[in-house]
Amino acid sequence: MEKARKAEYPAYGTNSDKAITKAQMKPDFGLRRDLHELYSVKDLDDEDPIGAGSYGIVRKVIKRGTDETFALKTLRKAPWAQVPSSLTAVEYYHSKLRNELECMRQLGASLNVVYLYDAFEDDDAVHLLMDLCEGGELLERISDDEYREADAARLIRAVLRTAAQCHSRGIVFRDIKPDNFLFQNNDENAPLKATDFGLAGKLPKNRDEPLVRRCGTPSYMAPEVINRKYGAEADVWSCGVVAYQLLTGRLPFRDVVNQRPNAKEVFRAILEDPLDLAEAPWEVISEEAKDFVEHLLERDPKKRPTARAALLHPWLQTNEAQWKSKQRRQVSGGVALGGQVVARLQRFATQGLLKRSVLRLLAGEIGKDLNELEKNRRENSAVASDIATKKKIMVVNGPIKQSKLTGIDEKEFLELKQLFDRLDTSGDNLVELSELEVGLNEIGYDVTGNESEQLLAKLDTSGDGVVELNEFLAALVDWESVEKSESYPSWVKRAFDLLDEDDSGLLDANEVANFVVGDADDIDFSDENNESVRRNALIRACIAEADGDGDGQIDVEEFASLLQMDPSDGLDQYDWRFSQGGSYDDSFDESMDEEKIVSENNNNNTIVEV
């Protein structure tokens, strides 16, 4: 069995801060340390990496016992040749490592992002275990004789979706460029996935407060990043640069003076040069595409569209709308959730574990109320023995779709139950991985086995390896509509009271642990056992989701705030994943029975941060 090599430390140089200790250079990140027990990992010096950067490498690793392959991103804890001149520089670098991990955990369940399976560490490095994407980088696929404008629209839509998802989670990517988008496999229509969140940052809670650290890759930086006063709009500019590059094969602003690109000259071009939409091949590119690029490369960030608004631009919408229309025309009858099943699953899967778990609880409570309502309705109605009598009763009672008691769309709940039953081919009231994968493909969604596994892992908030009805409902219910019902506040309070075991009006670590991991003993955050480290990190993250005042406990107001849906987190920023072949049919049958730090390198891929 391979072992992690003994940690080595940078030397102290003339300008080094001698007060910086080894423990400060290579801190413990609180991650599990059993990587080499679970995966076959070659030594850093024994294998050519599949990717490399200034501070780490990406290697292919194999899971012991199954021979499954993954990508392992290894980031050194102390990448410096000499100890830095200040502790601030050391702490900033380590905050970047933590931030990359946190961002991937938040976004990883989206089908537009490379999935993070787990995170490990040893004395020398942090290791991120991720999806292995073997289809190559974005620009590697483009061929002059086959590439079309429609292909560019499809690809830039995927890039923009990533940006929109980041922004709705309070994250700014800060390094959107073709190198950071990989095709999952070599198939012609392989999904495009974002990777490398090393420069991603948290947006201030006050969105009017600007970020000031200049970072990114020079040619893709927005003017306001160069000027050190920017926000989420900077990612939209970078998307515009990628769109320009996909359509023309060149960058919109570049150094035309020096043989080797110079960052200062690139910055000058970004700030001053006019945008060229006339030189070939622009004469054969549609006016809609030109308008799209021109809007994204608007130098004034206040006039630039948001990522979500850009997704609604006619150039992107035309192809998408035509495809959705074509798919829906193949369906006889209604379409479950308007074809939004996979988009809704992704949106749910990017929420934190505590929120997903509480929504499961709420779905169960709502289900109880609806069942009680249906029971009362049946008791107060005569049983119709034939179609004619049934029609008369419907005339008297009216077709009830919106419950007067709860304000909930009962038809949607029935529709979701029918869809669950359709996926549950074994009839055991549970959806297993194989059933989810086969079922989604059968009703016309293009989701791979690995992606189905990733979605199921987030749906399965109880951690038993299968999805039960309440977990399924929690992911697919239209919670924004539910929030508007009169009964919603009482459901939230009911859910809080169920978790508040000691009736203190506060949820502490043990109560959260009992709910999330079940039968938890008193929490000991000092326990260094691998499983305890993982569990404790999970509980900390759950509390942090809702603990607005940082006191380590969750009150009822924080609990209600946690559950509030973000209206900016729209389904249009997720990939709907209609199958490119086959028919689309998740129809709803109403007749069914109701039941990279400072310095320019030799190439344009260099990350700059100054």
Overview of the structural elements:
With 610 residues, the protein is an alpha+beta fold. Helices cover 41% and strands 9% of the residues. Strands 1, 2, 3, 4, 5 and 6 form a 6-stranded antiparallel sheet that branches. A two-stranded antiparallel ribbon has the order 7-10. The longest helix has 27 residues, at 353-379. It starts with 21 loop residues before the first helix and ends with a strand. Mean pLDDT is 83; it is low at 1-5, 326-335, 382-406 and 582-610.
Could you list the spans in which at least 5 consecutive residues all have pLDDT below 50?
A: 1-5, 326-335, 382-406, 582-610
Q: Which strand-content bin applies to the residues?
A: 5-15%
Helix content: 40-55%
3D shape? globular
Q: Please tell me how large the radius of gyration is.
A: 26 Å
* Number of contiguous helices: 22
Give the mean pLDDT.
Answer: 83
Distance between the termini: 42 Å
CATH architecture of the largest domain: Orthogonal Bundle
Count of the separate structural domains: 3
How is the biggest beta sheet arranged?
A: 6 strands, antiparallel
Let me know the number of strands.
16
Secondary-structure class:
alpha+beta
The CATH class designation of the largest domain is Mainly Alpha
